[in-house]
Amino acid sequence: METTRLIIVAVGGQGNLLASKVLGEAALIAGVPVRMSEIHGMAQRGGVVESAMVFGDAESSIISDGEADILLGFEPAETLRALNRCSQDTRVITNTAPVPPFTVSVGLGTYPDVAQIKQLIQAKTAGLVAIDAMSLAREAGSPMSVNIVLLGALIQTGALGFDRDVVEEAVKRRVKPAFQDVNLKAFDLGFKAAASA
Amino acid sequence: MHKLLQDCPGEKIMLLGNEAIARGAVEAGVAFATTYPGTPSSEISLNLFQISQETDLYFEYSTNEKVALEVAAAAANSGLRTFCMMKHVGLNVAADPLMTLAYVGVTAGMVILSADDPAMFSSQNEQDNRYYAKFGNLPMMEPSSVAEAKDMIKDAFELSESLKQPVLLRTTTRINHSNAFVTFGEIAPKNTQGRFERDPHRCVTVPAVSRGLHVKVLEKMKDAARLSDDSSYNFVQGEGPLGIITNGVSFYYAADAVKDLGLTGRAKILRLGFSNPLPEKMIAGFLAGCEKVLVVEEGEPFMEEAVKAIAQEQGITIPIKGKSDDLFSRLFEYDPAMVRKHMAAFFNVEFTPKTAVDTSDVPDIPMRPPNLCSGCSHRATFYEVKQAARDMDVICPTDIGCYTLGFLPPLSTGDFVICMGSSVSSSCGFSKATDQKVVSFVGDSTFFHSGITGLVNAVFNNHNFTLVILENDITAMTGHQPHPGVDMERFGLSGYGRVDIEKLVRALGVEHVSIIKPFKVKKSIDTIKEALAFNGVSVIISQEPCALYAKSLKLRKIRPFVVSDKCADHRDCITTIACPSFYLDQDNRVAIDANTCVGCAVCAQICPENAIRPLKQ
Q1: CA distance A28 to chain B (A)
Q2: What is the pLDDT of residue B370?
């Protein structure tokens, strides 16, 4: 079985740990071996959270610089910061809605231009899908569903090789019943947005 | 029912490494568990704490790791399977009982888990605790994966029972915080009723007894060495004249590298999972079948030095390398590409890896340093102490917890921290060694852990400093565990005592004790000034629950504040306290995010224009 290496980067509170659990569940349903590693701890205090997921036959659970096959970014500046994890063969999916760091919020730093972020990633990698996941999450009914919007976009690209119904089943298994409808809608909106991006 | 209590052998479930370890303890029939929380071990104990509320497992959050190990030592000498877990530096605190418990041994299985933290994701050092096993004569096991960690626990208990010796189980962050599928096994029944049989010639370690015990522990380690040589946790994978000796997560990086480099059939790997005592015969046999050997281990050259010693005894002169300037480092974590690169170089294999994209033209991306939360009471206390001491030449020893972040600007309060409890004792030293004013900070949980003895020392030796105890009613940094000052009814639990910090401090003989409510800024500053003026030991107890904890328990009515148009744009709020709820709006004016503001009102009290007001609802 071929190995696919996925890195997810997000800001604490954006729900990337749930997103990676959903993908792990999808792998179980699809019968694909998976190993995941995550760095948390400072997440509640506004830091960056990174998950690495290795699907297929490789045994390691972490991913070295330049070796991600897919980079999924929940925040545009964080996607750009993780560019060293990519090679020219990496496919990138990113949210375009910024979550400014505190230093930027209070005028002590400058947030990079999102158009420039997109252009840089596009030029250096095998392709970029950029969607405003925050607007779509609101449309789905909750800004908390940004993570599942982005999973929808990821699955649409086909980069991971999972069928959409497998991931939707995984969402149902991993998300509390009260939030399932919102999240399935979020998944659908992300999927459609990536199709037309 | 707790998900780790499901009785469904053979079923697969995705678990965090620490959950898998907790499940391993359940499957092993652990009856007694103790800990002091510390990342990356904390989720193990969190799960066992929850499980203890549904079963007859006895679990406790002990005051510190030394206490946890001593409590556990008694249980394991009363016939109960006992599990004691901590982070790597916690084992330093527990080192005193550890060294002699190894002489005494146990009557039922005892596993001591040390969660090491290479690369220091959340620690003050990256010490390699494998040396504790060697130092203390403890058998040691090290898993390479999440699934193996679960299965190893049960075998570690059986090993402990066969040798009547505590076993050290050593993990690293990449095991504790990885997720993987784990297959549930059978849950063993547990014995929860202990009985201590008096055995003073083993259990009372006066010199005459201990001389005999030291002889016995060395004999036990000879038995352990035989078991290590036969252990299925020590195995050879692959074949060929090139040798790799590895442990822990590095095993998988090495296995992937062998494949990636096309060395299958030319290289074999010796994976050591029962790693103290090392399987000397097995290693000698492995070396005899190799032309050269690469040792791949994070941290110190623990295996490498032993392997070289074995080679010397055997008269084997093949090249054996691991740590060196052009190969592996003693620093930080390893990763698959690094292991592959050094393996390619050592075995003279050509390999062109994927190159990371050139990021030299990427604009500067602002960092996201961790910050104290919106409405964190520590921010208020640091601000008030700074104001009260503004004209003084101050040293601020601090301690381990969320409040260590106070050293960052603009609060910039925190000058010295080496370990849990060092704030108090180092204040004793600074106050005698210098003429500077000393104001130190310790959290409530840390004060109970190891701050009290320093304060006793200060009273006895008549030192001169002010200690601020940040009483936020919880162990916050590691995820809201209780401590001896916590009201356990907030956890819905009864039958616990509670230690009052103010009464304790007064009973220790501290003459100047004051209480502040840090969200009352002016009153707090006045009280702090009085304490700073006192000649001798003064203690200020700053009482306000952790903002996140208060939010989760709905202890505070959340009433966000807003910036009114009276704001004259001094920006004192941003430049002096820097609460993450502040931002600049589209007109470049200070605003407050009503979604995150908890209404502590500290900023409202420092605004020179009185422009920050409660949001009208």
Answers
A1: 8
A2: 82
* Closest-CA residue of chain B to A68: B356
Can you tell me which residue has the tokens 């050592």? B346
pTM: 0.96
B583–A41: do the CB atoms touch at under 8 Å? no
Terminal-to-terminal C-alpha distance of chain A: 30
- pLDDT of A1 > 90? The answer is no
> Does B410 sit behind a cis peptide bond, omega within 30 degrees of 0 on the bond before it?
yes
A2 shares contact with chain B (CB less than 8 Å): no
What is residue A21's predicted lDDT score, i.e. its pLDDT? 93
CB B218 within 8 A of CB B102: no
Q: How far apart are CA B116 and CA A176, in angstroms?
A: 34
Q: How far does the CA of residue B144 sit from the closest CA of chain A (Å)?
A: 10
Q: Considering only alpha carbons, which residue of chain B is nearest residue A49? A: B368
Residues comprising chain A, all counted:
197
- Residue A123: count of CB within 10 angstroms of its CB: 11
Peptide bond just before B277 cis, omega within 30 deg: yes
For residue B185, what are the contacts with CB-CB under 8 A and spacing of at least 6? B9, B27, B150, B151, B154
- Contact list in A for residue B364 (CB cut-off 8 A) is 110, 112
pLDDT of B417-426, one tens digit each?
Answer: 999 999 999 9
**CA-to-CA distance for B8 and B15, rounded, in angstroms?**
15
Contacts of B373 in chain A (CB under 8 A): 44-45
pLDDT > 80? residue B412: yes
Residue of B nearest to A53 (CA): B179
What is the secondary structure of A129-180 as a DSSP string? EEE-HHHHHHHHT-GGGHHHHHHHHHHHHTSS---HHHHHHHHHHHS-GGGH
CA atoms within 13 A on the CB side of B189: 2
Structure tokens belonging to residue B6: 């499901």
Q: What is the pLDDT of residue A127?
A: 95
CA distance B257 to chain A (A): 10
Interface of A with B in 103-122 (CB under 8 A): 103-107, 109-112, 116, 120
Place of tokens 């939010």: B551
Q: B599 with B375: CB under 8 angstroms?
A: yes
**Residue B467 and residue B398: Cα distance in Å, rounded?**
10
- From A88, which residue of chain B is nearest by alpha-carbon distance? B357
State yes or no: pLDDT of A43 exceeds 60: no
Residue B552 Cα distances to A18, B117, B483, B487, B543, angstroms: 20, 29, 18, 15, 18
Question: What residues form DSSP beta bridges with B182?
Answer: B13
Instruction: Report the pLDDT averaged over residues B14-19.
Output: 96
Assign A42 a pLDDT band (cuts: 50, 70, 90). low
Closest CA to B272 of B234, B229, B243, B231: B234
